[in-house]
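Problem 3 from the worked examples.
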Amino acid sequence: MSTPSNQRIWLYSMQTQRGAQSFHYLLITVFSTGLIFFRIAPVVRPAAVLDDRNETPIESSTTTATLPEIAPNETAHEIDRRDADPVVPEQRAESFQAQQFADKTTLSGWFPQIRSDENSSWRIWFSRRSRALMVQIGIIGFILMTNLGVTIFAVKSYGSRNGVGLIYEGDCSTVKRLDQWLHLLINLLGTGMLSASNYCMQLQAAPTRENVNAAHVKHKWLDIGIPSLRNLKYLSMWRRCSWALLALTSIPIHLIYNSAVFQSLSSHNYTVVVVKDSFLNNASWSLKTAEDNRAGDYGWEDTRVNPSNLDYEEVVRAIQRNASIYEERNISACFDLYDDYFNPQGNAIILVKNETLQSPPEDSLLMYVSIVPRSDDWSKNMWALGNGTGHFAALSPPKPVTKWFLGPPYYEVSRCIVQPPEGLSANCRFEYSPPIMFTICIMNMIKAAIMLSIWALRRWQNPRKENQAKEVLYTLGDAIASFMREPCKQTVDMGLATKYDFLTTRTLRNRFIRSSPTIFQKRPQPRAFEKNPKQWRSSASLRRWVIMLAMCLLVIIIAAVLLTMSFVSLRQRGFGVKIPQLWKLGFGALTPYTYLVINMPRTDPGGLIANVLLANLPQLVLSILYIVYNTMLSTFLVQREFSRMWDPGNRKPLRVSEPIGIQRSSYFISLPLRYGIPLYASSGIMHWLVSQSLFLARIRAITTDGSDDDVNSFSTCGYSPIAVFVTLLAGLLLVIIIIGMGLRRYDGTMPMVSTNSLAISAACHVLREDQDGGYLLPVQWGVLSMTGGVGKCAFTTAAVNTVKLPENGPDRVYK
């Protein structure tokens, strides 16, 4: 016995799908072959308008109808089925009607995956939103345990003083490596935490069908499938509050997480005296004479040298008393010792060469200066760099130094005697902040608690089984399935409507006047089809593009200006700004020439808090840019998914968040993994690059006896020019990528709906044959009927060869 023709056609359309990857497609092929030998009850039912004898469409006369009033109890399907064709083309196109619709009830006997209660596969189990949410809770729980465990271990093992604990003290290169690797770990944990939080925020910002209906009644639209602030107005109080709490707890993480650990470099205080030879023989001296001699030289009497808390009489007397144990060095070695900000440096006695100055031997102190670590971006050894001219450059005098002059009197240096470096320490410290780490743990706990509450509430409500109006429309597939089951009354006969039809144009004159989109101000008219392959960029609004590009360009311009200013500063000090020269300054390394010079507190604890916030402010900006970037890319891909649904070779079940039967599952909301993983990875790399570009730095001042000088220690922000340069290039690359993706083109067959819920609903006014279970089966968009030159476009399960595509031409319009 042969299989009925209508049955074979539908099964054949299932066999010829491109890209079918699930096991049930193989079963379809097997069963369609087997049906040649067995007589099986019809799988599909013909449309009501077909002639049962020859299955040919019955010609219907063309009539002009007026739009009757909508009855209060009239459904959208009943409205759809009306014969309301106000536009009659001069030449009638060939009439036809889609037929051979798929039937879930009959097919479920052959393919168990179609049954609504078939949910045993791992694919479907994992893709459930409640279980996907549990995965995110597991991620954030793991990060919480890691943060809490590390914090408790650090506090118990290392302790703290004034809010700062010491983890390691020793070799500076070891400290730099620790700093780079731990910041990489922090950014990985931070990216994971914030990604899980953003996932949950997007779940909470997704509208329910009830929310969408409430907006549509007011002729407003909501966003489907992307993070959106537009939707918040229509959400329940709990969902808005949980969304806000997740957002608010992210701010402290952005602002302080990268400063939980930091490096602290040591720099020594010292005093330099320029003397006659007789000074070593305990000759007399006068501070007044020395101060007069140095007058007018910025490096010897600047306000940031010679701290007022020292007794200089005692300091000079101690140097003269201990001169016998100091070590002698030649001019070049002496200059090199004090030319490095972080070298172990002690007091120095510099003897002049001028013979005429040696007599009389009295008044042996010619000049003096007391140096402490500077908190600006000028060298610590400004007293040495002027070379007696009053002009300062980092490479002056030229090396190797054979002639060296000091101060306005232009004293020529003969030799110097320095405090032995063996008794001085130049160790660096790797420190942490317990208050910051505990704050991160608290924010992490709040996020975990909110996410657990969301999961528990979802389990308790179980919206799909109790009330379809409470069903959340996370993805495009969720929205199409919902509108196929219950079409939207507001978008009847708008099958070719685009997102542009539902926008309200406002001018300066009427910007405060609320009005409906033009399409709702008159009766919907069938429209001619025009295939228009728009670029991906068209799926996003102009405002969204302006916001994203303006933010990106503003950040890039600010970074470029700061980088240029740093180049100018380095050139003024005699440094080159070519890539090899910048690399020598260090990637993410602190140097005395790369401090931020701004009017901020320097001393702790105020200095620490202020500089932590400043150093991490770019992290917050970067996270906001990530959300905007993610939204833009998601918008591209939502329209891409929609625009491919006309292709009969691409006919597939809908991709939904809670798959039933053979519906496709989704591990994501809007970004497929092949887009999401690179985006998350690039976000983590960008956060790490930013942490190496601008960072918290603590300078620990050490006195000549090796004790800490808390008065002259300070916190500041350092920057790395080479890291800023690399970050700038990476940011430009990401902007170029998103612009380049925006230049790709959609096919243009289907309307440009983007994420607009009204436009999506307009394409989902299915025929009655597809209302019951069509959303559970492979669907295709196209023209389902043509009567009197007026066609109807919607999604359907009808056989491939009975669904046509809209065509250009004056003899046909579509609704």
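Problem 4, a separate protein:
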Amino acid sequence: MNRMKDIENLGIDLLELDNLISKTEKKKSIEELIAPYLAHWRWIVLSVVLALILGLIYLRYAEKIYMVNSSIILKHQRDARLRGGNAVFSSMDLMGTVSNVDNEIEVIRSKSLIRGAVNMLDLHTSYIVKGRIKSNDLYKGSSVQVTMEQEDLDKLKSPLTLTVVPNKDQSVSITHSINNQEKTTKINHLPALFSTSAGVLTVSFRSETKPSYGVPIEVIIRNPNSVVPRYRSNLSVTPTSKTTSVLNLRLNTGEPAKGIDFINTLVNVYNQDAIADKNREALNTKDFIDERIAIIDRELGDAERKVEYYKRSQGLTDLQSDVQLSLQRGSQYEQKLVDVSTQINLVEYLDNYVREAGNKNKLVPSNVGINDPTLTATINEYNKQILERERLLRTNTETNPVIQKYDVQIEALREAIGTSIASVKQGLLIAKRDAQNQVNYYKGQTGMAPTQERQFTEIAREQQIKSSLFLMLLQKREENALALSASANSAKVLDEASVTGPIKPKRIQVLMAALILGLLVPILVVFLKDLLHFKISSRHDVEKLTKLPILGEIPQSETGAIAVHENENKESDEAFRMLRTNLLFALGKDKSVVIVTSTEPKEGKTFVSLNTALSLAMLKKKVLLIGLDLRLPKLHEYLDIDDSRGMSQFLSGYESDILEIIQPSKIMSNLHVIPSGKVPPNPSELIAREVFDEGIEVLRKNYDYIVIDSAPVSLVTDTVVASRVADATVYVCRANVSHKNNLRFANELSEKKMLPNMTLAINDVVNYSLGYGYGYGRNAKYGYGYKKARKKKNKIDIASLINEKMENMKKGKK
């Protein structure tokens, strides 16, 4: 049985036919894709026009956003290479720490600095003149100025709104709300005080602005803290590169004049804040030095009075000279002893200051004359961390992880300072002990010297220590005062604030967005309408969900279970001829067993099985239709035949010869039927028996085609088990009944190769359009344009042509 050869003998160039129909189907696929949208083209055009009109209206009345630009350079006041050593004050740089660009960016964007700029410019107060559609903020163009005390501003919980109307007689009428009732008050002379529930306002005229008499000005006063976030969110501060300290300041605003003033004022506030920060360390050092000078001054007076008293009491006027040589050598060590003692005193003073609990998180004086570079460097780093912590606290709380990190670092540095002080003191004590030993040695050389000389030397030494320390502190106080008076700005303005724009809204972008939106809205509506339809309704739906070849579409049957009749050309006849033709391609050479199944019941698999078998029988072939739905058999009802003997009896062993249970179909003489028989308790086990395979082999030898009506595949495993004997599978889905998930399930079966040579048949199509697709090893589709009530004369009925030629050839051979 070489059916492929039969088809080739029709004289049709299949390659040429394949190319022609593929091109037609490709064009048809594109048309099907856009057809749902083209059907609503009027709504799409209307939507686009309306969207463009709305876009133009938006461009006309939307607030225009401008960009205000400025650039500054951060001046690094300190050279880190000068830190440490003996040049303590010069390296300390009381002007402030080296600027860290990232930190300075956060400082500039901090709420406290922005709040300062808002308060300086009164940006918390708006002067609005309402137009027909949009309102205008007068800013400095307002002829009336309303101010409120800072204390009252900070207490505002909601905006305070007034309506001020300047009059020609230089008076103003003020309307405001009291207890939800509007009250108008006339003020004859300005400036004047005006009381409200939120506080006292000062109302005055701006001398530089000409008033617009009779024009209401809406004055809105807000809490500065509620204005700060708006400016902060629109402000960006970015470095020009990673290697420079030049910053670009940009502010997006709908009011260019306000933006320019805000940027310039913000830079000024930043400089003032930076200067105040830099001076704090110097002021703290000044207080420490002044305190120490007062103490040393008292101690030095006491030492000088002791010297005076000793000389007077001992009657001394000059030192003896008989031990001059020893005294000269010993004097060097005594001087060293004086220096070391001075350092010890300084270290002790500093140690007491650091240990005092009240000085925690306060700046530590870093230049008090201690000649230890390590200690000085540690104090400098500690002061730097203290300043950074205080600066970050302006924009954060103490619970912030960054602040807590600084707290840990500061505590570690404080402990390091204590350790360094102890280490320095220990070293100084050793040096003092060595110097004292040398002094004692040379004193031994002067054992014959008068006791008065020794006593006087001890008293004078104390006086010299206090005097040296006093002079050093006086010098440091002058140096500190010089540094304090020489404070300079931290930021230098490179480019004054200027306006660019408007940057928003952009006309092209708005119109393009309107165009796209006008297209997308109706398209999306149509798409969602299609998407929310969960059942298949047409071939197009099926093709979108699966790549399985489609044998054909079967229209709604108006003639009951039997939809195929000889010598008739109804839609159902043509549909099953198309399905039959494509099935021949799918089966290929020497293949004859077709199993018909579906995902679930009521999709029409028995209907398709019966009429497919009838269509094959019309080729004058010997065809057998087997009812293998052993759980819910319907085939015997369709054909009105006896179901007492069937497949279940044969598989159970009650019938030994499968040929004995074959019955005539009562429709065509060459179509025979094996009903399913009585419903058994174990259908899957019966079908899995070898007797089933043996029976099918017997039937293959006796029939040209075998069509098996099997059970739904999603409910039971019967079909999968029985598919081992099949050469092809016809998977039936039903329009407006089968869910789209059914086809996804079919895809899984195909991917896992659980059913052989799977093809699809679409049953019960409402808007029937005859076409066919053959995809044995590929996914090509064919169609020849048969449509209900719209059949065109110039279309070629390919399936009918092939069938007709095959029948004529058979008759000719006979």
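Solution to problem 4. Residues 3-34+549-813 form a domain with the Rossmann fold fold (CATH 3.40.50.300). Residues 1-12, 77-98, 770-802, 809-814 have pLDDT under 50 and may be disordered.
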